[in-house]
């Protein structure tokens, strides 16, 4: 197909984009970070299928990097969004749907007594940190080394334009290492406002790690002992692992939690939930945005959450993820290729053994893409409720081409 | 109408909201800050008319606090949004409409060689500051005392949860006071990264001030002398005063500018534009969000900008604002009430003389609201292209009731 070629539609769009957008595109969706042949621009999407600007169609395993949890253009979600859009979206205040959504979140999430809504995951994690500081009157925040919590100065992975003071009160520990956590808490002494942790360890390019329950309990104990807030950054994992919150399965509840991505099946929305201890602090901080009361994404969220509950979305995604994982293991074994699969099945990562600079992963992905499946070589992938067993089997057929290409590398 | 009553639909929604949302609502749309009788929840909107949850209809002079520039549910914008939604919104990368929008912005805006897109005005102002620091290798940012630049720790108006370090490199000057600007630049010495200024002085509750051209030239001169970035925070004013940028009329061009609010007629979008000097820095910083490549708001923005150009939106809004201003002046004079009107006609503010705590303004607004027009007692208002002379005259009829109520205060 022509997308690899200099005269493809994608290449022409990239050329135009480079003139008017620094680096061709900001942030995590820049295709410059992807293997040869990956498209930058997409024409359309439906269910778990993506069509690029040159008309190639893929079984998608990235789900817009998380937001697409029920499937692109899900009828029930889009109907709810359209019905709200026919009444109003951004107005001088919210629509009644805000109250329905807030009640739904508080009912669904055991630790939650209240919620705030925003637009970005970064809005939500930053609000959690600010609420924790306001509520405790303290400043230090413990962050796992290498964890991604957003793109604000206190947490963005690039230090360009960031000052030392932006991170003056950030202390580090290692994920799943209770001793390092306790040492960092010691360093914070009487100034510990919060510990922020992702639902599982999902640092780009390395094996995913589920949270050790003893570690999760240690996080809770450190926060309880210090009177600090346990902030669960559930932006990436939320609504795929457990509808009550990603740590419900290990029985550890946060004081504050941040969500975004999948909450409205692709409509722009983020949320913070919190318990009574932090309600007053959440009232005192000032956090807002021009579109934070817009009603359409809220209507989409209510429909998304109802559908996830109705069909047991996490269960379906787990089953599809397990089918994918078993299939990839079998294919790799048949080709004699060493791979490692990690993470929850709903958000899988495939890495190759002895793979300097993800070269094998890139060859695998490029070949699988040509065969019709969109894998990622080093970031966790995402399953959706739109993936059927037949879709997974199509992805596995494409993966077969990928493993064959890796086998040719010798 | 029943909205004032304890048994109104609005009151019932507020009661439910208070249980699940701290303070009943976050941020600037919390109706607790508004006069008696103002609704919190809105059922629908069309053109320049808003309908609250209890079915009362108003001629709206707040325009969703800025985003609604063409009118609620504008057919051309909503058609463009719907057509894009039928193809795709958030995907693994942008749709081709991104390139169209970026080229439109760069063509429309004389200082712009490139753009970035985000979701919130705060995203855009924060990205400007980060780009300025990355580009200059310096840290200090000069901010006008009392200016609102967003809700991030470096700029949010509440200090709850904010640390001193979040603002360690912020220095202050007074808007329209070149001497204070020069003094602040002196204090920054060799560490001046940027001066950030709003398009005009629009601090809540006080008379608006247009920028003195000599002051604007002084900002440019200070930045040029220091090799610092002039950041125009055009989030609030953008696309109402001049389509090329709000300082085009005074002939001073920024290096970086931030937009949001009206850019997509209510769809969630923000933008940064910059010149060549800062392209490399904009490439090096890391700024992103889950929905920043979503295609629907971009399609809405392209349609919004085309329509604003086609109908000379700023000219129409100026004419309607002048009609409103003249009418209010005449009514106030007839009632013998001292008022002050300030700001550009497209974004007017009405304040009453000798008005401690905006009591007269609140009485005026409450009475005008009962008569069918939604004014604001202390924040600048917004005209839209949907306001016709007949709508302005309806708002003036309601204002007549407002002035009569103020006259009764004695």
Walk me through this protein's architecture:
- Chains A, B: This is Glutamate-1-semialdehyde 2,1-aminomutase.
- Chains A, B: It comes from Roseomonas fluvialis.
- Chains A, B: Its cofactor is pyridoxal 5'-phosphate.
- Chains A, B: Belongs to the class-III pyridoxal-phosphate-dependent aminotransferase family.
- Chains A, B: InterPro entries: Aminotrans_3 (IPR005814), PyrdxlP-dep_Trfase (IPR015424), PyrdxlP-dep_Trfase_major (IPR015421), PyrdxlP-dep_Trfase_small (IPR015422).
- The structure is a homodimer of 410-residue chains.
- Chain A starts with 8 loop residues before the first helix and ends with a helix.
- In chain A, helix 10 crosses helix 11.
- The first copy, chain A, has a seven-stranded mixed sheet with strand order 4-10-9-8-7-5-6, sandwiched between helices.
- The first copy, chain A, has eleven helices and 13 strands.
- Chain A has helices spanning 9-20, 75-85, 97-108, 121-136, 178-188, 213-226, 279-284, 295-310, 313-335, 359-370, 389-409, and strands at 42-46, 49-52, 57-60, 114-118, 140-144, 170-173, 192-198, 229-233, 256-259, 270-274, 339-342, 349-352, 373-374.
- The model of chain A has no long low-confidence stretch (mean pLDDT 97).
- Chain A is globular.
- The longest helix of chain A is centred in the C-terminal third of the chain and has 23 residues, at 313-335.
- Chain A is of the alpha/beta class.
- Chain A has two domains: 2-72 and 312-409, Aspartate Aminotransferase, domain 1 (Alpha-Beta Complex); 90-293, Type I PLP-dependent aspartate aminotransferase-like (Major domain) (Aspartate Aminotransferase, domain 2), CATH 3.40.640.10.
- The interface between A and B is large, with 113 and 113 residues.
